[in-house]
């Protein structure tokens, strides 16, 4: 079975074609600048160099057509025809309380995802566009929706409720949902496998650290708490998102700066985080370079980031009444040894001890715990696409 995994953004489309016989990635790529001048596809046939195909992509339907054409191309394709695509797995960001697991996509599912769009206005509409594009291009190919929020539907009410009038939960389902669930599920399961343990017997904190970042407490394979909330804005300091703050700041800024709620929301989502503090960049790699050049504000920004992560790890150790392993994943978590070390330096009281030499790794599975450490610290590269493919194969 060949499964095409799609992750649609507002102007982009990431994809992988995976053969499920041996879980082998055959090809992958990204369509960029959909609906914008200069659209193109970066396509990689595994084992070959990445190629760039320029092309007009006014819609996601056009992008899907380019993806299929690339996959069946005689020069850089990996299948003979579109008929060899047996199913499509879609990443869908927000499933609300409607979906506690992945599901085969039908008209009822599409309507339910539409209803969740006000909870994820930047993501769900793009996900729906990708689904519609596939319906047009591949009308007879079954599709599965894999929800970022689904893994967190095991959180108890004491975790997900906000201390607001309960009527808002009744009326609007206003609560903590959490995100990055596909990543947290994959990494927590892989952590247990990597350490040779049964996940049902483990208490794991997963740190998904990238431009978007979240921490998740996984007890016995189930999410019991996570740092993102109703939206991805809550929680850690991120590339451009503020993370946790006093909600009274919204009114304060509105009064002092004469800003509307929409304008403040833009500031909190797109102009804050490490970009806001550093005044340099939202890209952690730029901050790393600035730190090497002696930039103190860049150093302060990274200190703020690491401190916030460590606070959440400590809180989740309390929430689970113990901790067996901390897993670092995503762009920063997988590749930045200094950030991992900074975070772990706050957690020695829990029994966290790291091997500095073992920690000098990038993008590979690695146990960098010191010998005899009570809490394992590991790097586990995330693979959301494989999780989506596995869920799709299971349901199809």
From TrEMBL:
Organism: Vallitalea guaymasensis
Pathway the protein acts in: Metabolic intermediate biosynthesis; acetyl-CoA biosynthesis; acetyl-CoA from acetate: step 1/2
GO BP of this protein: acetate metabolic process; acetyl-CoA biosynthetic process
Site features described as Transition state stabilizer, chain residue numbers: 180, 241
UniProt-listed CDD domains: ASKHA_NBD_AcK_PK
Reaction(s) catalysed (UniProt annotation): acetate + ATP = acetyl phosphate + ADP
Catalytic residue positions: 148 (proton donor/acceptor)
Keyword Plastid among UniProt keywords: no
EC number: 2.7.2.1
Protein name: Acetate kinase
């Amino acid at each position: 079975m060949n499964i095409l995994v799609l992750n649609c953004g507002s102007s982009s489309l990431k994809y992988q074609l995976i053969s499920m016989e041996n879980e082998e990635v055959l090809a992958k790529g990204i369509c960029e600048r959909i609906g914008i001048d200069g659209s193109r596809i970066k396509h990689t046939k595994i084992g070959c160099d990445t190629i760039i195909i320029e092309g007009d992509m006014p819609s996601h339907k056009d992008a899907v057509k380019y993806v299929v054409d690339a996959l069946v191309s005689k020069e850089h394709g990996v299948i003979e025809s579109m008929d060899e695509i047996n199913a499509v797995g879609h990443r869908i960001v927000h499933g609300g309380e409607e979906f506690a697991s992945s599901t085969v996509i039908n008209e009822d599912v599409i309507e339910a995802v539409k209803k969740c769009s006000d909870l994820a206005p930047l993501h769900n509409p793009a996900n729906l566009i990708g689904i519609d594009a596939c319906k047009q291009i591949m009308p007879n190919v079954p599709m599965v929706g894999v929800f970022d929020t689904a893994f967190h539907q095991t959180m108890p009410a004491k975790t997900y409720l906000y201390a607001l009038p309960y009527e808002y939960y009744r009326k609007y389902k206003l609560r903590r949902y959490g995100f990055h669930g596909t990543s947290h599920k994959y990494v927590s399961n892989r952590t247990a496998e990597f350490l040779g343990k049964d996940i049902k017997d483990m208490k794991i904190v997963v740190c998904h650290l990238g431009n978007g970042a979240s921490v998740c407490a996984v007890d016995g394979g189930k999410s019991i708490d996570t740092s993102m909330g109703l939206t991805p804005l809550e929680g850690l300091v991120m590339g451009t998102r503020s993370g946790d703050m006093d909600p009274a700041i919204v009114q304060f800024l509105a009064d002092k700066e004469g800003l509307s709620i929409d304008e403040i929301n833009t500031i909190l989502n797109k102009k804050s985080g490490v970009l806001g503090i550093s005044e340099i960049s939202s890209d952690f790699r730029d901050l790393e370079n600035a730190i090497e050049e002696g930039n103190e504000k860049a150093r302060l920004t990274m200190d703020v980031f690491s401190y916030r992560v460590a606070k959440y790890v400590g809180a989740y150790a309390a929430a689970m009444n113990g901790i067996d392993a901390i897993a670092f994943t995503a762009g920063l978590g997988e590749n930045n040894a200094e950030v991992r070390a900074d975070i772990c330096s706050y957690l020695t009281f829990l029994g966290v001890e790291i091997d500095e030499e073992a920690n000098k790794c990038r993008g590979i599975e690695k146990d960098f715990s010191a010998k005899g450490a009570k809490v394992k610290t590991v790097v586990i590269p995330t693979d959301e696409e494989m999780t989506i493919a596995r869920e799709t194969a299971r349901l199809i």
